[in-house]
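Human:
I keep going back and forth on a fold encoding question. Comparing notes only helps if you start from a blank page. Show me how you would write down a chain together with its backbone fold. Write it directly below this note and I will take it from there.

Assistant:
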Amino acid sequence: MTDLNVARKHERVDVADVLRGLAVMGIILLHSIEHFNFYSFPDTSEQSAWLNFSDRAIWDGLFFLLGGKAYAIFALLFGFSFFIQESNARMRGDDFRLRFCWRLLLLFAIGNFNACFFTAEILVMYSLIGFVLVATCRLSDRTVGILSCICLLQPVALYNVARAALDGAYVTPSIPTGDYWGAAFAMQSGGTFLETVKVNLVEGQLASLAWAWDHGRIFQTAGLFMLGMLAGRRGWLLKEALPGWGRVLAVSLAAFFPLHGLTTMIPEFVSNPNVARPLGIIVSSLANFAFMLVLVAGVLYGYYRTTRLRDLMRRIIPYGRMSMTNYVTQSIVGSMIFYNWGFGLHAHLGITASAMAGAGLFVIQYHFCRMWIGRHSHGPMEWAWKKATWIGA
């Protein structure tokens, strides 16, 4: 994919909002069937066979289609948005890097507010990893691409695989988080709102960040941030880049299926758990990345090549433009639905009913976004974040 007209790169790219909206919708559905990281479900032993089938089909189907992929699209677009902001500032003769550091500190505060309700939120992690964009934004495309590939290949996991394969006594390190998750589960099950908030902000955040490190999300997110920034530089989300996405689609499809197959085979054929665990992280991370590219390529082709699909996809643009507002409010509403401090429906809603609840929440948010964007240029949280970012400017 070649470099495209510089001025056009700095315009708002509607298809990015489409992708962002679809990603947040997917995240809401996944969080809903997980009961917002509260793995407590009703007894299904006496429910009908068709409902058991529906539960299994929805769980497996959503995780196959969106698990690890919706977040990856969200991370890719975070880097893309940084490029738009940083390059526009440079065109005005400003240096955006220090301002973006302040923006990340604000995101850290927003993420901790979100964490009051939801232990597995990602905004705090984004605010910490986002500094990699400040460190790399003045590097060449080639260097950024190489650094992105290194991160996506999971260098720590690669080291652990090599070390464990050469030294039978080596134990792959992991962060002990059982007590943290146990404390969060106890509060979700029986705690008051204030008790839940207290645990979520300490034990919940520590457990979430440790899980991200142990499962390769830290390096994957950093790699996707840089790849999104590179996509902005090279105009990869513009219509002119579509032929290149055809090649990406072909390679990604060819890579995904063997990688997905290896993910399920590794525990069976690799007997040393200190090799199998980090190797599984590498392979599953690459499989999710490959399928994420398939999804992005599919959306781009549908948007740019088919008028009917483009008109349909454009309907979700208001939802994508208010992605932060939607992400935070789904945490508030979702925890209220399932946790003890709210309605405590974790023991009453199975997978199918939870998916329907998530779909209902999306519909409500969607109609609110269409109404709001009809009157305002930004969502409520997006507007507040933007205003606070440029305070004193």
